[in-house]
Automatic annotation (TrEMBL):
Species in which this protein is naturally found: Selenomonas ruminantium
GO CC, any one term: proton-transporting ATP synthase complex
Entry annotated with the keyword Transcription: no
Functional summary from the UniProt entry: F(1)F(0) ATP synthase produces ATP from ADP in the presence of a proton or sodium gradient. F-type ATPases consist of two structural domains, F(1) containing the extramembraneous catalytic core and F(0) containing the membrane proton channel, linked together by a central stalk and a peripheral stalk. During catalysis, ATP synthesis in the catalytic domain of F(1) is coupled via a rotary mechanism of the central stalk subunits to proton translocation. This protein is part of the stalk that links CF(0) to CF(1). It either transmits conformational changes from CF(0) to CF(1) or is implicated in proton conduction.
UniProt similarity note: Belongs to the ATPase delta chain family.
Compartments (UniProt record): Cell membrane; Membrane
Keywords assigned by UniProt, alphabetized: ATP synthesis, Cell membrane, CF(1), Hydrogen ion transport, Ion transport, Membrane, Transport
UniProt xrefs under NCBIfam families: ATP_synt_delta, PRK05758.2-2
UniProt main location, coarse: membrane
Classification via SUPFAM superfamilies: N-terminal domain of the delta subunit of the F1F0-ATP synthase
Protein name per UniProt: ATP synthase subunit delta
Length: 180
């Protein structure tokens, strides 16, 4: 719980800086890239989380990986996280930043699950339809689940739209069982 509160303070701080500088999208992309980089190398996550590793060594690694690759604000933010021994919270900070930035820009995340990979054209159709329904810009997060058989299941926040074949079959089965 304490870690979530700390992560929120840091994500709020970098969010406010990004908003002030008009760089919400850029900072969001950079934080997401750093998060993905770290998650791709589990040893790096362990390295930054290890309290026995000196801050100087951690800062050197950040410098080698990101100096000149990121904006100055994000680069210095990473160094600040190392100094304050909060680098392990980066993943949570990046996610919270993304949520705040999306809310500020009127963007909603839609988790879209299909039986087979959705084509580019299908993704555009789904996004356009969801934008018309929600009145907001929609960013798709794609998932696959072969058990759906066909169709699509969309989840936006706590709202779920089931347009899958499996969902329709379940509804039909429920209807048939209750009508006996």
């Amino acid at each position: 719980m304490l870690n979530l509160q700390l992560a929120h303070k840091y994500s709020r701080a970098i969010f406010e800086l990004a908003q002030e500088e008009g760089k919400l999208a850029q900072y969001g992309k950079e934080l997401l890239q750093v998060k993905k980089d770290l998650e791709a190398v589990p040893a790096a996550v362990s390295f930054f989380a290890n309290p026995q590793v000196e801050r100087k060594a951690k800062k050197e690694l950040v410098k080698k990986m990101y100096e000149g690759e990121l904006s100055q604000s994000i680069y210095h933010f990473l160094l600040l996280l190392v100094d304050k021994r909060r680098f392990a919270l980066l993943s949570v900070i990046a996610e919270q930043f993304r949520e705040m930035a999306n809310a500020a820009q009127g963007i909603v995340i839609a988790d879209v699950t299909t039986a087979q990979p959705a084509t580019e054209a299908q993704q555009k159709k789904i996004a356009a339809k969801l934008e018309a329904v929600t009145g907001k810009k929609v960013e798709l997060r794609l998932h696959e689940n072969k058990a759906l058989l066909g169709g699509v299941v969309v989840k936006i926040g706590d709202r779920r739209i089931d347009g899958s074949v499996a969902g329709r079959l379940q509804a039909l089965q429920k209807e048939l069982l209750t009508s006996k």
